[in-house]
Amino acid sequence: MHRRIFFAAIxxxxxxxxxxxxxxxxxxxxxxxxxxxxxxxLGNDWQMYQIRLTxxxxxxxxxxxxxxxxxxxxxxxxxxKGTNVDFTINADSQVYKSANLxxxxxEGVSSDRFSFTASKTQGSTYSLQFGNPANLNAPVIIFLxxxxxxxxxxxxxxxxxx
Length: 162
Description:
This protein has one helix spanning 2-27, and strands at residues 33-42, 46-55, 60-66, 72-81, 86-90, 94-97, 111-117, 125-131, 140-149, 153-155. The chain is an alpha+beta fold.
């Protein structure tokens, strides 16, 4: 009888230690997350996504567009929360990088509009890369609107790494 109680107590202790240890490992680092707010087909040729991205400090988040040669993509983003975000569009090389147009300003990029045409020389996959600089120590929330051809495809990771 005492033996059963002893083994039950050890089992419960080990289980609680394992659960507490796993939750502290997974909960210690905040991860980027996304929320698709709206997806629409516009006419016969275009589609649109509206996405909200939440980026903890020091994290990056890619939104991938698969486009054919000559396809056009258009969009914009703005910060719902936060003061700065890094934004680039990359394919085989960098296609675009957001920059603060106010010379001498210490403020970062809080919104931007982009438009580009896919070319065979750049490849078929374009990465819209958002980054939250680690030195800000605060999360940013980004609203993103992207319009691209119906024959194209948009991919967002289910889970991004910080």
